[in-house]
Amino acid sequence: MIVRTTSGDVRGEPIATGVRFRGVPYAAAPEGELRFAAPVPAPPWDGVRDAREAGPTAPQRHRTIPGLDLSAVVGDGWRTGAEYLTVDVWTPDPGAESLPVLVFVHGGAFIGGTGSAPVYDGTAFTRGGAVLVTVQYRLGVDGFVPLDGGETNLGLRDQLAALRWVQENITAFGGDPGNVTLFGESAGAISVACLLGSPLSTGLFRRAIVQSGHANMVRGRAELERLARVTADGLGVEPAAEAFRKLSTEQLLDAQDAVLEPGGGPDLRGEDGLDRSYGLSPFLPMVGDDVLPRHPGEAIRAGAGADVDLIAGTCREEMLLYFGPTGLLDVLTDEQAVAMLSASHPDAAGVLRGYGLGEDRKAGEVFVEAMTDLVFRDGVKELVESHQGRSFRYEFEWRAPKLGACHGMELPFVFDSLAVSAAIVGDRPPAELAREVNAAWTRFAATGDPGWAATETTHLG
After folding, report:
1. pLDDT tens digits for range 321-348
2. CATH of the domain at 115
3. Is 51 within a domain?
4. Which is catalytic among the residues 106, 345, 387, 407?
5. Which residues catalyse the reaction (predicted)?
6. What is the extent of the structural domain holding 82?
7. Does 318 participate in catalysis according to the annotation?
8. Global pTM?
9. Is 186 a catalytic residue?
């Protein structure tokens, strides 16, 4: 099956429910002078480009959580290649007209992940009559460190470029450019919330779904410039795009690894004493450029994105992902819990006491509950309450045998991809729940209504 895009023809692979196209460029390779520069359209090619195999991924180092195989969600690591600003497209029928379109932004703490990971298979969405697009974007130093002479928020700019590509090309895949739902999880959800508050996203999507992320996980320019300086010092160069362009990708990944080590990065707390990532990642979107001229949460409260229908939600036990498999949940002491939160919060002891620390509860349980609220649930609640348009909120509650309702647990259910997710969901996940959740996302993309009441939190699982 061949489809014509604005850059040239692409050949897809027939699947049981339609056709799949992989590794289709939406922007030129970010190399040479285009490194640390805003994305530009993909150059044209002659003939038919084979789009039947997954393309390269953004440069990254494969990271694991001890005792847990997350490859279904994050992929197997870096697939090298310069042309990684690409999309994968699943469509029921390229010859169809005006099908609803969902565009997915993957998570990975802004340092890893890929839109072509197995869990993000689009078969269920095509079976429901929708087109799915998954996006690769720049990560880490390449995507979220401001450098002199370079552009800012490059990862977000890539996502905007992908959305513009969708507007120009999705009709050729059977989709409706006027009915696009942007959705993402974790870092992808933060991205979606930021774009909801960005003036540059106007007209690029009609609906949004924010899964375990929100608009508050952003940094000011001063914090990220400190990160740029420390990264540059580790490389022995100035924090300038010209200097960084002369370095290899491996050198930048080595420097990135260094700042990710405990104590390897700068103090990234803001003037209020909070580290907005709570230690999960130094790399976050930056407030103060044309992408985010004001804090996206403030912009949303002031009416940005009011014409966009919104779903936002969390998993019930988000932070279990980081504490369950490692065994830390059972051995963490009260003192250790306070010390860990103190690195991100000015009143760690007070916050944890409010959740029962020092009473008849394990410190690990208290810490997971408090951090689930601080990192995820509180921000999602604020996002839904601030949004001036129609909003729906959910909480995913189904508990996997080993991981509970942890961060990312909803993903195999959203994509109805349980068959490739056994390492996460266990041996007997409820297939009916996966069909229900996937149908709700598909219905929302088509109509703006997932089938839930907008006035209360919907409990899934």
Report:
1. 988 787 788 898 999 999 999 999 999 9
2. 3.40.50.1820
3. yes
4. 407
5. 186 (acyl-ester intermediate), 318 (charge relay system), 407 (charge relay system)
6. 1-318+381-461
7. yes
8. 0.97
9. yes
